[in-house]
Amino acid sequence: MPEPTAVIESRDLLAMEKTVLEPVHEELIGRSLFPTIPGVNPGAETYGYSVLTRSGAAKIIANGADDLPLVDEDIKRAFQAIYTIADGIHFTYQEVRAAQMAGQPLDTIKAATARRAIAEKENDIIFNGEKSVDIKGLTSIEGIQAISADKTFATSTGAEMQETLRKAKALITKLPGYSGARLKLVLPPDEYESLNSRYSDYDSRTVLKVVQDAGWFQSIETTTALAGKGDKDTDCAMIFDSTATTAGFLLPMDITQYPQENKYPKIIIPFDERTGGLVIKTPYAIVKLSGI
Q: In sequence order, what DSSP letters do the residues of 42-100 get, joined into one string?
């Protein structure tokens, strides 16, 4: 007997492609936090970059003294591994034949779900890393600054929430060269909602509006990826300089859909992405605010 065949034609896949970028659940903000690093080949297994530090300082010396202070630039080479995130969808041969007979596109939800699952994993890696392959994320990288709130946002007044954020962002803006930095603030949903409360009995603005008016942050965003990621499993906020000198998102290959694989009685369509998560070059320009 001839082998059963069913081919998912281009018009079927085109209908699937129309749905792939439509948000289905929470907006995934991870890849928008920092610039994407360009020019990395998808076939690369590691990404190398240089971290520059300065040592030494000038000083006043006596006339004729020969104890000249020496300064130097130290370039440290660092490497970050690149991994594949993958999943797939499947249809039975009969599902394909039935859809083609009816002139209907295949189930577009499956394709959207496959891409969404990869995007969710990518988003979690950006924020929290992946222990199984030793990728560090925004909340877990060594060298970031850390501070704990005196009170949770739920038990704080508007002025107390504002002061907590001011103290945290000052850890960056007091650094040389960062006094005028416009930072990004990312919080879990519960704490973001707390900022929407009235600032005080004498100021009808929300705490969020007061903080925005202060001009400290380029943007204030929210994500569930930070819930329970602070010290002692508390909620945390992240404050950081979002320029390429601080970090970049390593994405050699965006989510890609592959040709179908025929494995009777199913047809499988694979998807994958090549990423290394965040490459963080100046961790001291990142603050983790726990206990909020």
A: TT-SEEEEEEEEEE-------TT-------EEEEEEEEEE-EEEEEEEEEEHHHHHHHH
Q: What is the CATH number of the domain that holds 236?
A: 3.30.2320.10
- pTM value is 0.81
Do 16 and 132 fall within a single domain? yes
Amino acid in the structure at residue 219: S
The one-letter code for the residue type at 109 is I
Interatomic CA distance for residues 38 and 125, integer angstroms: 19
**268 or 63, greater pLDDT:** 268
The pLDDT of residue 53 is above 80? no
Q: Are strands 217-222 and 183-187 parallel, antiparallel or unpaired?
A: parallel
- Over the chain, what is the mean pLDDT? 87
Do 286 and 98 contact (CB within 8 A), yes or no? no
Residues pairing with 140 in the sheet: none
**Rounded Cα distance, 72 and 56, in Å:** 7
Report residue 170 CA to chain centroid gap.
22
Asked if 150 and 242 sit in the same domain, the reply is: yes
Residue 66 resides in a domain: no
Local confidence band at 76 (pLDDT 50, 70, 90 cut-offs): confident
Task: Judge if 176 and 37 occupy the same domain.
Answer: no
8 A C-beta contact, residue 136 and residue 280: yes
